[in-house]
Write a structure and sequence with these properties.
alpha/beta, 6 helices, Rossmann fold
């Protein structure tokens, strides 16, 4: 299938299945298809998806992996610590039987792979496990990709926090705040009191020089 527009990509991503029994400690929810399509389309037009080896850390039910495959990724790794969620992703992506997609049930912060071009991820925001978002980012950088695209809960200090992290690595990186947006999550956990919870997110690109 050829995706001709960001709007078409968003429509396709909206078909990805939800978590039947989301786990609060893993902050499980399917990424907003509009925001996911924005990030993936930027990666696509920047030449970071088509014919690339793409890794989705904390893939959940596979929305970002699905988008990467639709946009022409050569190889995709769908990685999640929840084997049940990974099985949903595998079953959903099975019709793409001509794609080289690999499913790894593993802790995303401990993964080791070689030859990675691009990492795409919507990590946990650290609401229930403080700092887990930065652990995901460190894991992504340890894969030594050319580019990382990641979604984080927005704060005024976010970019400075990431810049300090990047100083620990030998490689030189350029960090870009691609855009900020409002993500909407339906009431899925017992701690949610609103029918729809909305909050600001930042979509960040980190590129190796």
């Amino acid at each position: 299938m050829v995706i001709r527009s960001k709007k078409e990509l968003e429509l396709m991503l909206s078909k990805v299945p939800r978590f039947p029994f989301p786990k609060r400690e893993l902050e499980q929810y399917v990424c907003d298809s509009r925001i996911a399509s924005e990030m993936l389309w930027h990666a696509y037009i920047s030449g970071n998806i088509t014919n690339k080896v793409v890794v989705d850390l904390g893939c959940g039910t596979g929305i970002l992996t699905y988008g990467a495959l639709l946009l022409g990724a050569t190889i995709a790794f769908c990685i999640d610590i929840d084997c049940q969620a990974l099985a949903i992703a595998r079953d959903f992506l099975r019709p793409l039987n001509d794609a080289n997609v690999f499913f790894l049930c593993s802790d995303a912060v401990k993964i080791a792979l070689r030859g990675v071009d691009t990492v795409i991820m919507n990590p946990p925001f650290g609401i229930y496990r403080r700092g887990i978002d930065m652990k995901f980012l460190a894991s992504a950088l340890n894969l030594k990709p050319h580019t990382v695209y990641t979604i984080h809960k927005f704060s005024n200090e976010l970019i400075n926090v990431i810049k300090r992290m990047l100083k620990k690595y030998k490689e030189e990186y350029v960090i870009s705040l691609l855009f900020t947006d409002v993500m909407a999550i339906p009431c899925i956990f017992e701690t949610h009191v609103k029918r729809v919870h909305r909050f600001n997110v930042a979509i960040v690109k980190i590129e190796k020089l």
